[in-house]
Specification:
The chain has 1 helix and 4 strands, in the order ββββα.
């Protein structure tokens, strides 16, 4: 995630965050082979998913329940 300009949080090494100049942010939570992406801007989160899908086989399981 560091290669994609995401910073690892100090409190949990499985949580990454990226802040954008427009005030938006994306938070990524990783656990083994699971990932949850949280952000305000759907276009930015979709762009991130497309970028990660180039490197990893991914499935979108829908909104978190």
């Amino acid at each position: 995630m560091v290669e994609h300009a995401y910073d690892k949080t100090f409190s949990d090494h499985c949580v990454f965050m990226k802040r954008f100049l427009d005030g938006n942010f994306i938070i990524i939570l990783l656990y083994v082979d699971d990932m949850m992406i949280v952000g305000h801007d759907a276009k930015k989160t979709q762009s991130l998913k497309r970028e990660l899908n180039k490197s990893f086989a991914m499935k979108h399981l829908g909104p978190t329940k």
